[in-house]
Fold this sequence. Notes:
Elements: H1 4-14, H2 24-35, H3 40-50, H4 54-63, E1 75-80, H5 83-87, H6 90-101, E2 107-108, E3 114-119, E4 131-133, E5 136-138, H7 143-150
Parallel strand pairs: 1-3
Antiparallel strand pairs: 1-4, 2-3, 4-5
Helix pairs in contact: 1-2, 2-3, 3-4
Amino acid sequence: MLSDEAKKEIETELRQYEQKQAGSVEALKIVQRRHGWVSDQHLRDVAEMLEMSLEELDGVATFYNLIFRRPVGRHAILLCDSVSCWIMGYDRLYQHLQNRLGIGLGETSKDNRFTLLPTCCLGDCNHAPVMMVDEDLHRDLDPEKVDEILGRYQ
């Protein structure tokens, strides 16, 4: 169930839109920021607030790959697997992350610190390979940089 604070934050956000449904992505982002992911119950609560069907809002939630519909670790790593990143060393980075974290794509580390997710493009091809950790973009990566970056996130 959504907290009163989350409902108030969503209602404040919705004032920016002529139609409540237009604020669906922002409403889901508010829920995710507060809870780490969007559960089925949260989805039902938000759908009711937005006067949308559960199926309509789930369609929005599952279309945007940055809305998490299942629990993730404290930090989400989005590893770009675009053509540019493949050419510039995706395989080496992916292997390094697998070995370092002990997880594959779509999995969460045993300490719940990181979830490793693929993403089709982060839009920074001239600095490939790239990844995002939470909302931070990291560019021109190699395994040594990845180790240094992971150390910043506890």
